[in-house]
Amino acid sequence: MRAQGVTPPGGGALFPLAVTITIQALVSLASLAAPVMAPAAARTTGLAAEMVGLFVGIAYATASLSSLVSGDMVRRWGAIRMSQVSLLLCALGLSAAATGTPAMILLAAVLIGLGYGPVTPASSHILVRTTPRHRMGLTFSLKQTGVPLGGMLAGLFLPPLIGGLGWQMAALVVAGLCVVATIVTQSIRARLDDDRDPARAISAKAPLRALQLVLTTPAIRDMGVCSFFFGAMQLCLTTFLVIYLTTAQGMGLALAGTILAVAQVAGVAGRIGWGWLSDRFIPPRRLLGLLGLAMGAAGMTFAAAGTTWPVAAFMLLAAIFGASAIGWNGVFLAEVANLAPAGQAATVSGASLFITYAGVVVGPPAFAQVVARTDSFSVAYLAIGSVMVLVGLFLILTRSGPSRRPQPI
After folding, report:
1. Domain named Major facilitator superfamily (MFS) profile: which ranges (predicted)?
2. Separation of alpha carbons 123 and 20, rounded Å
3. Please, which of 68, 84, 173, 282 could form a disulfide with 287 given CB 3.0 to 4.6 Å?
4. Residue 201 in 3-state DSSP?
5. What are 357-403's pLDDT values in tens digits?
6. What is the CATH number of the domain that holds 148?
7. What is the DSSP code (8-state) at residue 399?
8. CB under 8 Å to 344, separation ≥6 — which residues?
9. What is the pLDDT of residues 244-266, one digit of tens each?
10. Burial class of residue 318, CB neighbours in 10 A (0-12, 13-18, 19+)
């Protein structure tokens, strides 16, 4: 049942959807800037480009914690206010990274992680109040296109900025965009934060209760645990693709960035398409299982790729990889919000994302370790691809509790 309280312009869900997409895209751009800037930053900081895996791991470790505690904050101060805080934290993080010192780059990872965590629970809180149940999958998937849209911006526009202004000025440009968005969204806060409860207490035990709810509800627990591996795969794709293409395949930065953008475009298309399918034809759990198989197969194909492959082959493979490994989130978040008790979409989403981000924390550093120890990206892609096939089979072959069924056309 749809909650009441928000009356966006036109009385529909398009306005809050557009707002949440924009905020998600900017925060995503901020978080994905590091992997694109890593090769250029390595030349001026003395840090190996592969160390970006550690940066991403720290950022998402922080994001997992800020996501877990965000439920009460969203309810007390409002989803838009928490989104503004997220944007400012990302801006501060990028500004810290632009100093080029190792200590400030470490601080940047923490600040960006703190900013990234609350954005999805906040947007889930807005959308679950303004979206009819039979359009949950598509709407949440459309919102999640903000993540690959941010990745597209990172892949297409950051390389020219880095080439013309240097990586440090490029970081400051993205920080400026986050600040502008913070100022602009102030004008809509009253409309979308009208359900905030200033008297709501911030309980130290609330995050643990939220995590307990997720882990003791079988259907939500399975979603969360599998998202651990999905999140790891997604970040291994977006974090290492440019580095893999420039070092192992000998491509230029601009071409590698374009291929990353292809993966992100496919992720946008996948999120929309999978959301529509989950609303109409394929139950969310089964669809996520199929996506697990697809991303596993794509990872193992990357393991077999060689320098003699044509660029078109890498673009096609990146598109398949992106559609699955980037395109799964909207279906997952819609199903979690649908399974959450009434009024607890932000809380349950935040707790579920705590598990997702744990996978993101573990995945890139583990992937980097495999590459470092074997001196081979192929071994790393083969290993994580094999794991994803097993996860996909688990979701397809098992059931655990009720799940939202596709609606009749």
Report:
1. 13-403
2. 6
3. 282
4. coil
5. 888 888 888 998 999 899 889 899 999 999 999 999 999 998 755 44
6. 1.20.1250.20
7. -
8. 71, 210, 213
9. 898 888 888 889 888 988 998 89
10. buried
